[in-house]
Amino acid sequence: MKLATFYTGSVRTLNKTLPYFLNNVLNASKNIQVHIYIVIDAKKEDRPAVESLLKSKLHSHLISLVWFDHSDPHYTITKQWNLQNIFLEGWRPYLNNSGSMLEYYQLLLAYQSMLKYEWQKNFQYDYIFRTRTDSVVNTKLDFSWLNLNIEDIKTRIEYIKTQNYTNTDTKYSNEDVFKLFMATIYNPKLFHKIDNTDLIVSLDKTKSLASKIDTYDYKLVKAIKTLDPTKIKDFVSNGRYILTIRKNLMYVCKRNDFHLIPMLGVMYALNHHLNDNYTYNAESQFEMMCQYSRLSVFDYGDHLDDSSLYQYEESKFFDGEKTENEPLGKVKARLYCLVRK
After folding, report:
1. Is 236 helix (H, G, I), strand (E, B) or coil?
2. Three-state secondary structure call for residue 285
3. In which residue ranges of the chain is pLDDT below 70?
4. What predicted TM-score, i.e. pTM, was given to this entire model?
């Protein structure tokens, strides 16, 4: 398998997060050829040291390194043009100063670098993974979900069926069972007890159950209707979907299903729902582009993991001895953690 990884953001906490990236993404599996496309923001005086660090750690896996420049005239013009598409009061000044549009412009630059390299080498990647430089991935991105056998799927489905909606005695519908299955598919081990707490209990079910289904996908409809492990396995292997972590923090998708999403870099706010007051935030824009791509979106969110975005304290998310490979210690978060400082 060939995996293109887009690594975007700033260098603020890169020294702390990079070792976890090396362990859980770059070296996740010997069967995956990982190429990395980086678009990051840094002061000019810091760039030589950062570039030296990245090249020394990523070696030949680093295909492209682009330094983002806020004064880039193309970005400036694109940003102003995108702002003209915003009609809800209060959103223009917010987006003018936030990183929402910047995030997708960096994604577009990484995607363009990938297309150029594919053309030069006459090949295509199988999958794309996007993560941020301030994020820790706490599971091996080894695509083990593609190797789930029928019995594995059946066991996981039957387990979810035993659970109830929060604070009720009502069992999950087939669609919700399927959503929870897909939202936690990254690593089968995530479903077992960790510190005596099942993932399904800690999972922020509100977010995962809000995953968006493409009802025109016949493979998906068949899988949901019957929860037949054979049909589910077929969808996991061949269906059109994107796996997301905390909406748009990280995501993985088949390369051939991904092409519209980077266009948010130049089409931000071109799509909107007039009755949605949050239609212009980065998460909503991403979700709409996934829908236009005819992708079902399965989102993972965990109460502990998600709190790192707003209540970050190192001791809350990391524990144990700090080492070269784990500069913050062992990760307590289940799947990811955002390192804020």
Report:
1. helix
2. helix
3. 164-168, 187-210
4. 0.93
pLDDT of 217 reads 82
**Contact 165/265 with Cβ under 8 angstroms?**
no
Nearest C-alpha neighbor of 235 from the set 191, 301, 182: 182
d(C-alpha 153, C-alpha 145), whole Å: 10
The rounded distance, in Å, linking the Cα atoms of 38 and 110 is 6
Cβ(140)–Cβ(34) below 8 Å: no
In CATH terms, is domain 2-142+240-338 a member of 1.10.8? Answer: no
What is the predicted pLDDT for the residue at 307? Answer: 82
Q: What residues are paired with 74 via a beta bridge?
A: none
Residue 33 pairs in a beta bridge with 2
How far apart are alpha carbons 117 and 199 in whole angstroms? 39
Cα–Cα distance measured from residue 132 to residue 172, given in angstroms and rounded to the nearest whole number? 33
Whether 33 contacts 1, CB under 8 Å: yes
Alpha-helix runs per DSSP H in 139-263: 150-161, 174-183, 199-202, 205-208, 218-226, 229-238
For 27, other C-beta atoms within 10 Å of its C-beta total: 14
Domain ranges in the chain?
Answer: 2-142+240-338
DSSP annotation of 25:
I
Residue 3 parent element (H or E): strand 2-10
Q: How many CB atoms lie within 10 A of CB 268?
A: 26
pLDDT of residue 73: 94
Question: How much is the pLDDT for 101?
Answer: 95
